Hints:
Elements: E1 8-15, H1 27-35, E2 37-44, H2 51-56, H3 62-76, E3 80-83, E4 101-102, E5 105-107, E6 111-114, E7 120-123, H4 131-135, H5 137-163, H6 171-176, H7 180-199, E8 204-207, E9 214-218, E10 221-225, E11 234-238, E12 244-248, H8 249-252
Parallel strand pairs: 1-2, 2-3, 3-5, 7-8, 8-10
Antiparallel strand pairs: 1-11, 4-5, 6-7, 9-10, 11-12
Helix pairs in contact: 1-3
Amino acid sequence: MNASLPPASYRAVFISDAHLGTRGARADFLADFLRRIRCEQLYLVGDIIDGWRLRKSWYWDAQHDAVLRLILRHARAGTDVVYIPGNHDELFRAWLPLGLEIAGVRLLGEAAHTTADGRRLLVVHGDAFDSVVRYARFLALLGDGAYTAALAVNRVFNVARRHLGYPYWSLSAWLKLRVKEAVKAIDRFETALAGEARRRGFDGVVCGHIHHAEMRMVGDILYINDGDWVESCSALVEHHDGRLELLDWVALNRLSFFTPRGAAIAEPA
C-alpha cells in the first residue's frame, strides 16, 4: 500500500460513515489513510461505528481494531480529535450532555470549524436533515436492510474485479446515482443543509450521512459532504493555507488496492 510514501500534513481532516462493525466497511482503506496523514484537527463526522448492525450481528476484525488504534494514536500525538455521532452510532448521543472526552477524543453534537482563510463551517452528521431518518425510522431501517444487501452484491462484484486485475469500484454507489428518486433526495438534503448553515450565519457546511462525496456552492453557501468509507472511500482535507479538497483514496492509490479484504494490516506504531 505504498508504505514508503511520507505522511501528508493537513490542517484539518474530516471523515465519516466508516460503518465499522459491518462487512461492507473498507476499514483496510481507512486504516491506510489514517496511517499516512498528519493533521492538527481530525473530525469524525458520524457513523464511524455502526451500532444498528452490531445490535443485530457481531462483526469485527483486526482491521476495524487498527482504525480505532490509529485514531487514538492521532489523539496521543496532539491532534484535536472531535467525534460527532451520527444516526448509526446514536448511542453516543446520550453522552453528549456530559461533555465527555475519552482517550483524547471529544464528543460533540456538532462543531464550528474556522479555516485558515477565515471561513466558518458548520460540521454536522446530517441525519437531522434527512426526512426519512427523522420522521420514519421504520423506513430508514428497511432501507438499511436493502442497502446491506446491495453491499453484499458489491463485495462479490469486487472479488471478481480483483481477480481480473481491476481496482475497487463501488457498484452500489453507481446504482444509487442511477435511481431518479435517490438523486432528488440528495439534492433536497444538500439544499436543506445549506439552508441551515445560511440561517445560522456560517459560510459553509460539512456533513456525511448520505454516502455521496460532494463539494459545491448552493447559492452563497459552500456545501461539502466528505463521503464515506464503504462506497466512495473519501475524505475532506483542509490544507494549511485554508484550501479545501476532497480526496478519493481509491483513485489516488489505484495500483495499491488489490489486497483482499481480511489480509493482514500493519500494526500502528
